[in-house]
Amino acid sequence: MIKKIENDLTVLLDILPAEIRKEIDAIDDTDNLIEVIMDLGRVPTARYSTEEVVLSENEVTRNQIAAVVKQVGDFDDDNRAGIERALHRISAIRNRKGDVIGLTIRIGKAVYGTIKIIQDLIDEGQNVLLLGRPGVGKTTMLREAARILAETKRVVIVDTSNEIGGDGDVPHPAVGRSRRMQVATPSLQHEVMIEAVENHNPEVIIIDEIGRELEAAAARTIAERGVQLIGTAHGNTLENLLLNPTLSDLIGGIESVTLSDEEARRRGTQKSVLERRSPPTFDILVEIQERNVVNVQKDVSAAVDAHLRGYPMPPEVRTRHADGEIRIEKMSPMKAVALPGSHGKSGPRRLANGGNGQHHEGGNPVVDVAPVKKPSNLKIKNAKKLQPIYVYPYGVARNRLEYSAIRLKVPFFLVKEIKDADVMVTLKTYYQKRQHMIMEAERRGMPVYVLRSNTTSQIDQFMLNLFRLGSDDLQDASLDEVLELTRSAILNAKAGKDRIELPPAASYVRKLQHEMVREANLGSESFGKDPNRRVVIYRR
Question: CA 299: distance to chain centroid?
Fold first, then answer.
């Protein structure tokens, strides 16, 4: 079982206003308490792992905020402060005059046992990057890794916001024998990282929240000097890092290269391809999905290469159960279902209307898309048989295109060479740079669809427009309106609304809504029976 150190919580509760502290004591669920929110002129709330609770009917006053600020340490340039020898983090929101008008009080817990789910990877001596959304437990796991490794190695923590080792000059006992270097200002984190290697002869460097280009470069320098690196970054999956120009260097970076005719034939690809630029800084990637569930890519080089070639490598899924047992399973590779792009020597079938070299912004064709009114009961008619379309993707996630085609049940095929394609789909960033393959597609008179991003909603909209499943095939509502309504509901949920019910929608639209909600780190469920089945969004 996991043992938690709770002796710091009293220190934190003592700085809170009496009525807020009293309500937290009455709820008596400190194990699941994540943070306390105090915003001027609003009621104070506490966020637990399962719900958000109002702590008082009285609005927070300036005096209450000032009293809390007075009892914590000085706020750094990143507007974070702490409590002496405690792991709690207090973050401030300021007005334009610099006055503190809001506080986010994050509960810091030292948890023994969290690292067991990946301890074998840590002990191997390879560089490990922990990836996850805010609040999922990255720093807690990092702190435990520092304590375990310090029992046998020289470990130095670069602690930018004092969140790993706690506030004050003496580190919290939770980091064990690790040494801790503090950072005067977040913009200097990369310099302290290099200083740690040059001055203190570490065997392991621990870094939290790598988020700037200079920090990514410093991490590469450390790795090249033979020092083991354990770090964290914000994101959910490997693809998030690939699409992040600042952090992509952590996993090798991406560049467009032109192959020789012979090499292109050997690979069975077009001449211009995306490839990994250099060896990755981190050997292993751990995607923290939940506190007890992680996805592991043991070979980042192979995973990135496979992803760029359009055949993502399935991760290793590790789950920790209530009895402490850790189960490891390997996901099966995604089946292509005739979508990888090989359709024989007979050549592709052309579009019924032929290619005309049109440029389609945001996945929306310039013609034949008429908006429909009110959003309700979205359904696709199956009255006409769709003709197969062969698509050449340039910079767009192949796996998302495949998932969308399967979900919408359309005859969509990816091809490996532009000469076999009916249309091209690419991203706005690539189109604006006028890359060679895009110019080649336009020279051939091929329609080029341009998406703003690699999001599921953009790709689904592209599919609908590609197969002319727009205004003529949707009853009562356009997909754009439904998605816009869903986005508004997500914003309202993030702003504090507990439960939002969306209008009834067809099955494939509900799946899309669930994915949008999941990407926003919110919860959702479907209720009712068709044709009135609908999605309800709620805060986790």
Answer: 20
CB 8 within 8 A of CB 108: yes
Query: Which letter, b or e, does each residue of 215-225 get, where b requires 16 or more Cβ atoms within 10 Å of its Cβ?
Result: bbebbbebbee
Which amino acid is residue 126, in one-letter code? Answer: Q
Poorest-pLDDT segment among 176-180, 373-377, 393-397: 373-377
Q: Which residues contact 450 (CB under 8 A, 6 or more apart)?
A: 359, 360, 361, 362, 363, 425, 426, 427, 428, 431
Alpha-carbon 335 to chain mean position = 24
Q: Bridge-partner residues for 84, per DSSP?
A: 167
Q: Which residues contact 418 (CB under 8 A, 6 or more apart)?
A: 270, 392, 424, 437, 440, 441, 444, 446
What are 69-72's contacts with CB under 8 Å, separation 24+?
Answer: 69/100, 69/103, 71/14, 71/15, 72/15
Angle at 269 between CA 267 and CA 273, to 5 degrees: 105
Bridge-partner residues for 430, per DSSP? none
Which among 359, 304, 295, 356 is positioned nearest to 329, based on CA atoms? 295
Cα(78)–Cα(17) distance, integer angstroms: 25
Across the strands, what pairs with 378? 505
Distance from C-alpha of 286 to C-alpha of 237, rounded to nearest angstrom: 9
CB neighbour class for 128 (10 Å; exposed up to 12, middle 13-18, buried from 19): buried
**How many CA atoms within 13 Å lie on the side-chain side of 204?**
28
Helix, strand, or coil (residue 212): coil
The helix/strand/coil state of 425 is strand
Measured in whole angstroms, the distance separating CA 436 from the mean position of its chain's CA atoms is 31
Tokens, residue 322 = 């209530």
Identify any residues that bridge with 285 across adjacent strands, giving them in sequence order: 129, 297
HEC letters along 129-164: EEEECCCCCHHHHHHHHHHHHCCCCCEEEEECCCCC
The model carries a pTM of: 0.59
pLDDT at 330: 76
Sign of the C-alpha dihedral computed for residues 416, 395, 127 and 123 taken in this order? negative
- Sign of dihedral through CA atoms 200, 202, 208, 211? positive
**What digits encode the pLDDT tens for the residues 193-245?**
999 999 999 999 999 989 888 999 999 999 988 899 999 998 888 888 888 88
